[in-house]
Amino acid sequence: MPDGVRELSHHWPDNCSDKFENRLRYGVGATRAIGSPAIVILGLLGNALTIAIFSLEARLSRWNRFGIWCVALAISDSSVLIFSSFIDDFLGRGLAHIYGSEVLKLDASHPMSCRLLEYMQHSTLFASSYLLVIFSADRLLTVSQPMRMMTHRYVTQSVAAAVSVAVLGLILMSPVIAVYGLETAGYEDVMSFSCRIALNCTDGGQSSSAAKYILYFKAFGIFVAPCLLQAALSAAIVAKLIQVRRLRRDLLPGSHDKDLAMSRYYANLAVSITFCLLSSPLCVVIVMRTGCGLCEPRPSCRCHVLEQAAKLLDSVKDISYAINFWVYLIFVRSFRRRVQLALAFAFVRLRLVALCPNWSASRAAAEMVDRLEMKRNPGVFQSQAAVAAAAQATSGRTGSLGQLHMQMLKEIKEED
């Protein structure tokens, strides 16, 4: 047995029919074997595109608060997908469900890997939850005070707030390194290593303060509290948007709320509501599990069922970390158009060298486009003739490159 590994015995109640619990256990394994990798792939792809699109927008124009919060969420959500959905769920439980035995359980390979992976998982979960809360608070302030909270104001403060949330998560979750470790768990005479929290129970049935802090802070500080805050902020945003729409209709009869700002509010609401819907069942199960005890767990079917239900709902909740890009794509028309332009621009540029018989001319055209991408170049919109001339030198096959690029620049400038 490796150093630092503790023995853990599980006592199943003799009068408990664990048929339903076994079904839940199978559901957890199947979800993490099939659903988790799909969530990770779609989530990482969408988050990478989100970062690329908003970074390109900032390169061509300048950063705004909406873009900063979207990029910050994409980074934190990607971290959650890697440490929680992929390493913990898929590698830790999904592969075991597929092959019938543990294959690559990284958090159970060494006590230090257990502590570090759990630490990163807790920290990234904290960051993602509260970044979304602050994002919604920013949207509420923007709709309440539109003149003061214009899109390009308080950009530096937003970056500082996002970084502060990440650092705060690393600080608050630091006790994880001290309380987590490897234990041996036995189910039906099959022994396996598991990364668990060390309760260090006393004779009086009390666990250590650090263990209580991590358990209750993860349950209520990372899951329950952000869910309640998101619900309250979303309700406030909806009420304020209804008020704004009524006022707009009174002042401007026949107007339509299809502008860029309103679509951003709708996107934030969609992300927030999805987060609340996926988190609420897990929060209910977490609250119900508080009665099962820590050091002297109640040997009841209810507690074992709740344990597996919490694991299943936790895996399903990972969907909320993978949908942001797809929500922006549906609700924000400018983002959707920018994705189309960026993909078309990338495709044309990749084909530039392959299709153009004159390598030097195509390279000159590409370099000309690169110059246009300089941030806040005063002559960027006056250089269209130069781009067209360079593109024309490439046998007429790359003329759409300059047009796509200029169209993207024009749309961003109009939004600013």
TrEMBL record:
It is found in: Membrane. Coiled coil: none annotated. It is a multi-pass membrane protein. The chain crosses the membrane at residues 34-54, 66-87, 119-137, 158-182, 213-239, 265-288. One of its GO terms (molecular function) is G protein-coupled receptor activity. Keywords: G-protein coupled receptor, Membrane, Receptor, Transducer, Transmembrane, Transmembrane helix. The keyword Electron transport does not apply. InterPro entries: GPCR_Rhodpsn (IPR000276), GPCR_Rhodpsn_7TM (IPR017452). GO terms for cellular component: membrane. The keyword Lipoprotein does not apply. SUPFAM superfamilies: Family A G protein-coupled receptor-like. It comes from the Eukaryota. Residues 46-328 form the G-protein coupled receptors family 1 profile domain. Its main location: membrane. This is G_PROTEIN_RECEP_F1_2 domain-containing protein. It comes from Macrostomum lignano. The lineage of its organism: Eukaryota, Metazoa, Spiralia, Lophotrochozoa, Platyhelminthes.
